[in-house]
Amino acid sequence: MVLGLRTDRPCDELIGFAFDAARRRDTGLRVVHAFRTPFSPASAPAASLVSAAPEGPAPVPRPRAQAPADEERTLTAVLRPWREKYPTVPVTETVTEGRATVALVRATRNAGLLVAGRRTTGHRAGARTGPVTHAVLHRAGCPVAVVPHD
Question: Which domain range does residue 104 map to?
């Protein structure tokens, strides 16, 4: 089983459905979280090069180097209470930088079920399927359970 999960808005209904389905099927759960970091230029900004500071240009922060470790820690923290609630479900965490659709479709190659979400509130037109869920419905290599949530 595969669960596609956003860590910035984790959803109890979605996570609970996936863990319960894995427990009932007596199988493991692979939780896939894909993220994208903003582009970080390799050189210092032009404004800092004009500065006459003796120590040279200010270092440019590189969030890309820290992002994967931060995302892994966040995913582990989100899943901790669920691992405790479902101790018999083996969980594999996969954190990857890139497009969520690509990561999820790749993860479904040998899966029996993909669990994805659909928000039911916050849209003028009512419930809607987001772009990632819509794409995996058409491309996943296994059945997809779409779980509605707030």
Answer: 2-34+63-149
**CA dist., res. 114 & res. 61, Å (int):** 37
CA dist 120 and 43 (Å) reads 44
84: pLDDT strictly greater than 50: yes
- What's the CATH code of the domain at 90? 3.40.50.620
Q: What's the CA gap between 134 and 50, in Å, rounded?
A: 48
Residue 63 CA to residue 69 CA, distance in Å, equals 11
Length of the chain in terms of residues written: 150
Let me know if 5 is exposed, middle or buried by CB neighbors in 10 A (0-12, 13-18, 19+).
buried
Which stretches of 4-148 are DSSP H helices?
A: 12-25, 46-50, 63-85, 100-107, 131-139
Name the helix (H) or strand (E) containing 148.
Answer: strand 144-149
Domains of the chain: total: 1
pTM of the model as a whole: 0.78
Token pair listed for 2:
């595969």
Q: What is the pLDDT of residue 124?
A: 59
